[in-house]
Every structure is written in structure tokens, then in C-alpha cells.
Design brief:
By secondary structure, the chain is α/β, with parallel strands linked by helices. The protein has 2 domains: 207 residues, D-Maltodextrin-Binding Protein, domain 2 (3-Layer(aba) Sandwich), CATH 3.40.190; 94 residues, D-Maltodextrin-Binding Protein, domain 2 (3-Layer(aba) Sandwich). It is 43% helix and 17% strand. The strands form 3 sheets. A 5-stranded mixed beta sheet has the order 7-6-8-5-9. Strands 2-1-3 form a 3-stranded parallel beta sheet. It is globular.
């Protein structure tokens, strides 16, 4: 594919990758002179390290993953911080799921709970929920397992009592007899979950490439929301998530749900990012006064991409 700019994208394995798969297979990336090679990360720590060391140009981490990475080097000045967020994918699309033996929250006392990381990602959503139900730190144990699919397998293999899962793993776990204990929006109604992230230095040197990536992703997301493309979306989910027709339909319905699904405009949720910072502070991982959200973002690339997309 001569003449195309090559990008390496690292993401978690999940149904919400649908726009990426659409952009690869239905030509949105190629339309914008991009060849995107995507791979799946085993977990948050690996993804952030890969982004920092240049093993990928773009990543789709949780907002909290990037905040944690930035704050892990507090000696750095803002001008030296290299990682940043440039768009938002969704607010969570996750649920707390328990194994068949644990039908309610109270039954999780004293049990082992699976997380991606003890210090980043969605672990603080889980802990906030448990605290709201009267759990103390001694009432549960956390084990780091990795991304969604690894935690799903650990849950079915009875290695853990509960974990946070996303689509399609939520429906698959429920079909196996597991229990839905809480949805993400019930834990924290406003939240920024998965985002687009890159290195500032790379983005400065490849600003047009990043703008074209965002533009293509936006077009692919809108394509996914177009009812006339429903059949093609189902086929993509079946191909990339190994789903049968019914599971693909359930997953697509979740992704396109107006209030809880993918962001149709892929715009970063600033109030949701504020919530990420407040939650990290609540859990003792940020000290007041809280940093401004501007420390972690640069929306100039998105504005350029969205402005052209809106005009076209």
C-alpha cells in the first residue's frame, strides 16, 4: 500500500473497537491515506509503556491510565510531559459481574476480585462501588489479571469472584450463569473511560497524520451509527469478536445505545475527565489541589479534524 502513512494502534480487545475495524475494512483509513495496523494489549501497563517507548504511535487507553502515567513522574514540568489525550471513545460500557456462586454484592466479602491494575484503569470505580456498599479495604482482595478477555476467562474459571467487564464479555458471562451487580453509570454517572492517546513529540512531528487519523475514526464511528450499515457492523463484530448472530446483535445494541454507548462524535468528555481526577484523589492517588484537565489533553488536533468533517 505505497503512499500511505503507516500507524501502529494498540487497544484492548473489546466490542467498542468496532469503528477501528470499520475504518480498516471499509476504507475510511485508506481514504485519508492511512494504513493502520492494530494490535491488542494484555493490560494497561503494557499499553502505556508501548506508547511511551514508541512501540505504537496511537493507543486507546482508559483516561485514568494516562493520568496515572503522567502523575508517576511528578518531578516533570508540564512542558516536559509527553503523553496526552486527543479524543474520547466512550464513558465506560462496563458492568460489575460476579460468578454464579455470588448472587449479590454482600456475597463478595472476603473474596478475590480481578482487576487490570491495582493503581490504574477502572479499579477505582470498583473500589468506590464497594465502599458505597460498606466494604472496607480488609473486606476484599484484588488480583491483577490484565485486560477484559483475561478477566472474563478468570471469572469463568472460578479464579476470581467478580470483575468489571465490557461488551461482549458481559452478555457472555451472564449467559454462563454469572450475575450483574452494577453498571458503570450506576457507580459513577459521569466518567471518561477509553480515549485516544499519543505522544506530544510524535504528534508535533506528524500533526497532519494525527488529524487524518481522528477524521477517519470520526467518519467510521458515524458510519457505524448509520442504520443502513447494521449488517456490515454485525459482520465485523462476528469476525473480530468471534460472536454468533445473536451475540453480535446484543453487542451492537449496547455500542449504539444513545446514553451509554460509543460517543457518536468521539469528543473527549471533559466533565468525565474531571471525574477521573476526583476519583483518583478520593482513592488517595492525587493530592489537592487537583491538576487542571488541560494538563492531560490537547484538543487542537480534534478540532481541526472535526471541523473539516463537519464541513464535508
Amino acid at each position: 500500500m505505497a503512499g500511505l502513512d503507516h500507524l501502529r494502534l494498540l487497544q484492548f480487545r473489546a466490542g467498542y473497537n468496532l469503528p477501528v475495524h470499520a475504518a480498516v475494512e471499509h476504507g475510511m483509513f485508506a481514504k485519508h491515506d492511512l494504513e493502520v495496523e492494530f494490535a491488542y494489549t494484555p493490560g494497561s501497563d503494557y499499553l502505556i509503556e508501548a506508547l511511551q517507548t514508541g512501540k505504537c504511535e496511537i493507543a486507546h487507553p482508559a483516561a485514568d491510565d494516562l493520568v496515572a502515567a503522567v502523575e508517576s513522574e511528578p518531578h516533570k514540568q508540564d512542558s516536559e510531559i509527553d503523553l496526552f489525550l486527543f479524543m474520547g471513545l466512550h464513558s465506560g460500557l462496563l458492568s460489575l459481574i460476579a460468578a454464579p456462586e455470588y448472587p449479590d454484592v454482600e456475597s463478595l466479602r472476603g473474596k478475590l476480585l480481578g482487576v487490570d491494575s491495582r493503581r490504574t484503569g477502572f479499579v477505582f470505580l470498583l473500589e468506590k462501588f464497594l465502599r458505597s456498599k460498606g466494604f472496607g479495604l480488609a473486606d476484599y482482595s484484588l488480583v491483577e489479571i490484565g485486560g477484559w478477555e483475561f478477566r472474563y476467562r478468570a471469572l469463568l474459571d472460578k479464579q476470581i469472584a467478580a470483575t468489571l467487564l465490557t461488551s461482549p464479555f458481559v452478555a457472555d458471562a451472564l449467559a454462563s450463569g454469572c450475575h450483574l451487580l452494577a453498571r458503570g453509570d450506576e457507580i459513577l454517572p459521569v466518567y471518561q473511560a477509553t480515549c485516544g492517546a499519543a505522544r506530544k513529540a510524535w504528534a508535533r512531528d506528524h500533526n497532519e497524520v494525527l488529524v487524518r487519523y481522528i477524521r477517519a475514526y470520526l467518519e467510521a464511528t458515524r458510519w457505524c451509527f448509520n442504520p443502513s450499515n447494521r449488517r456490515a457492523c454485525l459482520d465485523l463484530l462476528k469476525k473480530h469478536s468471534g460472536l454468533d448472530e445473536k451475540r453480535a446483535e446484543n453487542t451492537l445494541a449496547t455500542l449504539l445505545e444513545p446514553e451509554r454507548g460509543l460517543y457518536p462524535d468521539a469528543k473527549l468528555n471533559i466533565p468525565g475527565l474531571d471525574a477521573v481526577l476526583r476519583l483518583r484523589a478520593e482513592m488517595g492517588y492525587l493530592q489537592p489541589p487537583l491538576p487542571p484537565t488541560e494538563k492531560y489533553i490537547d484538543l487542537s488536533y480534534y478540532r481541526r479534524a472535526a471541523g473539516v468533517a463537519e464541513a464535508s
